Amino acid sequence: MKSSTIHYYFREREKLLELADRIINLASDFGAKYADVRIQRAYSTNIRMVKDHFEFITGGIDQGLGVRVLYNNAWGFSSASSLRQEDVEKAVKNAVEIAKAASFRVKEKVELSHEKTFEDTVYTPVKVPLRDVEMKDKIDLVTNLSEIIREYSSKIVSVTAVYGEAFGDVVIATNDGAKVSVKPSRATVAFLAVAKEGEKITSCAERLGSSGGYEIFEGLNVEGKAREIAERAVNLLKAKPAPSGRFTVIADPELAGVFAHEAVGHACEGDHVITGESILQDKVGQMAGSEHVTIYDDPTYPNGWGSFKYDMEGVLARKRLLIERGILKEFITNREVAAKLNTTSNGGARAESYAFRPIVRMSNTCIAVGDYTFEEMLEGVNRGVYVKGTKGGQVDPAKGTFQFSAVEAYMIEHGKITTPLLDVSLSGLTLETLRNIDAVSKDFAMHVGYCGKEDQTVPTGDGSPSIRIRNAVVGGIA
Amino acid sequence: MIDVLEYTIKRADRMGASQVEVFHSKKTELEVRAEKKEVKIGQLTSDVGVGIKLALKRHGGFSLAFTYTTDFSEKALDEAVEQALKICRVRKPDVDFKSFPEKSSFKVVSDIYDKRISEFRSEETIDLVNNQIEIASADKRVETVRGLTTLSVDEISIMNSSGLSGSYTASHFYTYMYSLAKDGDSQGVGWEDYSSCFFDPDEALEAAEKAANLAVRQLHAKPIEKGQMDLIIHPDALAKLLIYILIQEVRADRVQKLQSPLVGKLNQEIASKILTVINDGRIPKAAGSRPFDDEGVPTTKTSIIERGELKSFLHNTYTANKEENKSTGNALRQALLQVVPKYKMETSIGPTNIVIEPRTSSSDDMTREVKNGIITKDFIGAHTSNPQSGAFSIAPYCAFKIEEGEVKYPIKEAMIGGNMLTLLKNIEIIGNDVKQVLFYDAALIKDATLIASTILVKNVSVSA
In degrees, to the nearest 5, what angle opens at C-alpha B240 toward C-alphas B235 and B246? Predict the structure, then answer.
C-alpha cells in the first residue's frame, strides 16, 4: 500500500509539472507578457464533533488550476476545477482576454521585480503520512479530546472538537523561469468548551496545529490543552461584567499576537501600503512604536502553521523585520509591490487555493521577546485589566483603528490579578497603542489560526510574549 | 451532469450504501476588482464539483458520511464513494437520521436568472467599473477608490436515492465600492454595495457615488462622550448583527443543542411589538431566492418573529424529523466568513432572504426623534459576538453623532456593548427605506440577503 501510494503521487507530480509548462507556454502564445500558474491536487479530511455527536466527517478531493496573466499593465485571472484539456485551454484564454479588455482602461504601469527563479521540489518533512493513518484513529482522537473536556465538570454543557488535515501536491510555475513543486501536509485540532451556570454562559477555545504528518500531535500536548480549555471556561463563570474606559492593559501572548497580526501585520501588507490604505505608508525609518516593540513576519519559522518556502509567485520567502525597536523597517511584498517600492520581493504572495489569485499575505507574525518577567510587568500596575485569548478582531489599516474581543479578562489591582471579567474588548489607534507599550515579557507562545482577506482564507501563525499597554481603551457591557 | 449524478448513485448503491444524495454545483463568476482608482484585475473562474452524502444502515440507525470531488473521472468518483463508506463503517449510527428528503414538485421562482449576466461580457463589466471609479473620484478629496463588481451564475442539481431530483440556474449581480477621502490630516471612509439577481449598471454607479459621498462626509471625525443613547442602525449594520447573532439563534439545530438563548421561548414575546421578521426563499430578484434548498426541499415563507413574538425556528429535514415537524426549506450549504463552493459543504441551516417588515418612518424622521445618539452605516467586530448568550461588543463604523434631532459630525472610536434580546426589545422605530443587503460584506455569504430598513434602538450603552 505505502510503496504504491508513493509511486502514484510521484506520477501525479510529473503530470502536474508538464501541465504547468503547457499552460504558461499557451499564455505566452496568446500574448501574455507575464504568466503564472498554480495547479493543485489535494486530499482533505475534516471531522467535527459537537458534544458526543459527529456533526460531520468529510473527505475531499480538490483539483484545479489558476492562471494569472499580465498584458499591457492589466491583470487577468482565471481558474477551473476541471483539468480536462478543453477546460484548461478555455481558462488560459479567458485570463488573457480579460487582461486585454482591461488593458484599454488602466493608466498605471505595472512592473514586476526581477527575481532569482528556482526549480525546486519542497517536501514537508513527514514521519507518519496522514493518508496512512486509519480514519478510526482520527475519529478516536477527536472523541478523546471531547470527552476530556466534557468530563472535566458538570458545568460544561457543550464541547466542539474538530480535526482537519490536508495534503497533496501544488505546482507553481511562471513564464520567467520559476518551477516549484510543493508537497504540503498539515493537520490541526481545535476545541471549544462551553460552560453554564444559571443564566450565565461562557466559552473558551483553542486551536493547535502545524505542518507535518500525524506525528505532530505527539509534541502538541493536545490532551493537556483540552483540559486547560475546560478549566478556563468553567472559571469564567465567576466573571463579572467589565468596566469601560482607559486602563493599563496586560495582554497575554495570544491576544498580543493577534494585535501584532491585526493591527500591525495588515498595515504592513505592501498592497495596502501602495494604495495609500495603510497608516504606515511613508513611515519607513520613522518611530512607529516604543523602543520595546520589535515585530517580524516569518514564513521560515520551522514547521510553522503559516510557513512556506516559496510563495505563490515562486519567490523564495524570507523573514521580514517589520518594526525593530520601534522603528518601521519594511513591508510584506509580492513582485508587483516590490517593483513599486524599488526593491525585490520578500515572498509575500499567497493564494488560498488554485481558485484564487495570489495576493500579499502574512505568514507567522510575531512580537519579539523582551526582558520582563510576567510578575515584573504586573508590579507596575495599580489598576488595570489583564486580557487573555481572543475571539477574533477587525482592523481598518487605513484609519489605523482596531478592535478585538478577549476570551478571558481579569482586573489588576495593586499589582495583583483579581476579579475575572466578562466580554471584554480592546480597541484603539494602532500607532498610539504601539507607542504605549512599555513592557514586553520573556515568555513566547505561538498560536495558529486563519486569516481572511479579499475572500481568501489562509493559515497564519501569531506569536508573541505578554505585553503591557498603558492607557488602552477597554470596552465592556457594564 | 445528470450522468455524474446517476453514476454516483448507482455506484454507491452497488458498493453497499443504504441511501445516497448527490449534490452538484457549478459557479461561474466574472469579477472585476478596482484598486487605487484603477481597474486592478479581472477574473473569470469556474468551480464545479459534486458532494456525496451516504447513509449506511447499521444496528441502531444510519451512519452518515460526506465526501466531495472536483475530479469527475470514474476513478475519482469511486474513490470518493469508497472514502465515504469507510467513514460510515467506523462512525456510530445517528439515531435521529431518518432519510434524505422525499421527492417533491418544485415551483419555479420568478426572476432569479438574468441571461445578460450569463454572457459574462468582460469588456462591458470592466467599462462599468471604470465608470464607477470616475464617479467616485469626482471629489478631489477622495484619494483612494477600490471595489469589486461580480457577475455570477450558479447551476445546481441534486438527486437522491428516494427518487428526488431537481435543478435550477440562478444569476447574481453584486457591486461593492469603497472610498477613502483625505483632507489635511483627516481621513474619512465610506462604502456602499448593491445586490440583485439582475445586472444593473445604474445601481452600480449610484453605489459608487454614495460611497464617495459618505467618505467625504466622514472627514474631520471627533471623539464622543460615553453614555446611554439612541442608536440608528442602517440595514448594512443590521445585517452584521443579525447574521452573527439572531439568525444563528433561530437555527433549529442550535436550539436543539441548547446553544441558543431562544430555547423554550416559542410563542413568547422576545422583541418590540413593532418587529416582524420573516424568512422567505421565494422573493423575485432577491439573491437568496431559489426553488428548493440545498437538500432539495421546496423553499417557503416562514414567520420567525411576528409582532414581537417568536413564532418559528428555521429547519432542515434532519432537525424537523427530530421533532416531527416540517422542514422550512432552510437546508443550506453556507459558511460564515469563508468562501467555500457549495459542493464542498454539507447542509446545515441558514437564511435565504430574511425580511424585516418595513414601517412608515423615513430615516430623517428618525433622526428628528433623537436628542442624543448615533447613526451608523456599519459595525466592526460583530463576528466576535456570542450567539449562545447574545452578547456583543462592537464598534460603529462610518457613523455620525446626532444631537437635538440633527446629524452633527462624524465620530471616531466608540464601542457599543449589549445583548441581542435587549436590543430587539428596545427597537422603537422601523423605517421605510428598504435595502436588499447581501450577507457578503457581513459574512462573505453570496446567496442570502437581509431585506430591511433603518431601525432606531433606544438606550444603548456607548463607551468612547
Answer: 100
Is pLDDT of A3 > 60?
A: no
Q: Which residue of A has its CA nearest to B218?
A: A399
Cβ burial, residue A28 (10 Å; 0-12/13-18/19+): middle
The least confident of A464-478, B153-167, B256-270, B345-359 is A464-478
Residue written as cell 466531495?
A: B68
A440: left (phi over 0), alpha (psi -120 to 50) or beta: beta
Tell me which residue has cell 442570502: B448
* Cα–Cα distance for residue pair A96/A33, rounded to 1 Å: 10
ipTM greater than 0.90: no
Rounded to the nearest angstrom, the minimum Cα separation between B360 and chain A is 32
Task: Please tell me the pTM assigned to this model.
Answer: 0.88
Q: Which of B413, B178, B35 lies closest to A432, judged by CA?
A: B413
- List the 82-101 stretch of A: residues with Cβ below 8 A of B: 82-83, 87, 91, 94-95, 97-99, 101
C-alpha–C-alpha distance, residues B103 and B101, integer Å? 7
B74-90 vs A135-152: helix crossing angle, rounded to 10? 40
Enumerate domains of chain B plus CATH numbers: 2-217 (3.30.2290.10), 222-463 (no CATH)
Q: How far is the CA of A279 from the CAs of A46, A331, B13, B186, in angstroms?
A: 39, 12, 59, 12
Looking at the DSSP bridge assignments, the partners of residue A425 are A405, A475
A245 & A230 share domain:
no
- Read off the pLDDT of residues A187-231 as tens digits, 9 standing for 90 and up: 999 999 999 999 888 889 999 999 999 999 998 999 999 999 999
3-state class (DSSP) for residue A478? coil
Residues A79 and A27 in one domain: yes
